[in-house]
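Bench notes, afternoon.
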Amino acid sequence: MNTVFFTKKKVALFLIIIALQSCVSTKYKIINKAISSSLNAEVFDDSFTGFLLFNPKTGDTIYSHNANKYFTPASNTKIFTLYTSLKLLPDSIPTLKYIVINDTLYAEGTGDPSLLHPYYKDSSSIQFLKLHKNIAFHFNNYKDNKYGPGWAWEDYDWYFSPERSGLPIYGNVTTIFKTDSLTVIPQYFKNKVVEITAAKNRASTTNDFFFEPTREDTLEIPFIVHPLLTKELLEKAIQTKIAIVKEMPKGEKKIVYSIPSDSLYKRMMHQSDNFIAEQLLVLGAATLSDTLTSSIARDYILQHNLSSLKQQPRWVDGSGLSRYNLFSPEAIVDVLNRLYKDVPKDRLFHLFPAAGVNGTLKEHYKGDNIPYIYAKSGSLGNNYCLSGYLITTSGEILIFSFMNNHYRKSTSDVKKQMQGIFEHIRDSY
């Protein structure tokens, strides 16, 4: 009697499992059909599109289209930079390495972008240096090019393309605005600004800047970085002369720290700040080596943390400015899943822009009352990608990567079609 009852119980449980699997399968089929239909819309006719939707709780791939193909990611590259930074950097940013010998402080940069940055205005290094009378700086630890591979040469005067360096100062940009009179930060360049209307904001080979007389907004123009210039800007900031040395003395280096690391990560992700993204990889290299090149950080992460990626990316910069970068939706979802497992949800979602609320997604993919997408967008001419996390009305958190390359239609039309897909997933899953 008990044996019969137990057998009936097992059969009933089996039937329930089959029924639940059938419901899940039916739900997947409905979602798959809707997404496939949307991806066949005219707006995607002339583009190369990839989409992967993944449930991190169950490990199920809900939908996949060209997910193993390579795409130009644009600023979706910053997702990999974020992952690298979280793996390599401490909670506060290391801003200087130094050794004190006799009465002289020997110091070198780590790539920290926050020093007197227009947004952060951090002066941790300045306050530390002011404690010392004899200071010698080593500038030769930075071995990278000033621009990333494949960056557009004509962008040299645009705010989003400052030069990379080992000891950035003022964000490596000249900030100019006009109220009653012209204000130039740093004032070092005050006499280098000419109020005229010009085709470019700066001369191509010199730090001579042009500001339209009727301009009402603030202008940030990258300046040409040189060790002697950095030395002079530091000297003015600390009011002390600085010597330059060819190499650091032998010995164990100590570290000065500046701002909380999350403050850099958030601005990189929310404002899609290219300069911070690039310098974060330089900072990552500084934790691994005395030589500052972003490839050290990239290579280390790919070899030690991301060696299992099915499609190894071609990853050439931290920001995604280069069209040489190649990533697959599957690789991006893999890294997003690792972040989801490693980082507390509240912190993780704080670092990503909330759709309809803040950052680069403030005007896009708005929810009814609360945001349902936390993601990083990426835009280059004829390319738009969005990858991140989607919260369904049932409370499920899904991970996605939606990559669109080489379209000739308007980006607003592409976004509108994507929004329809996201809303269907939100309401149906």
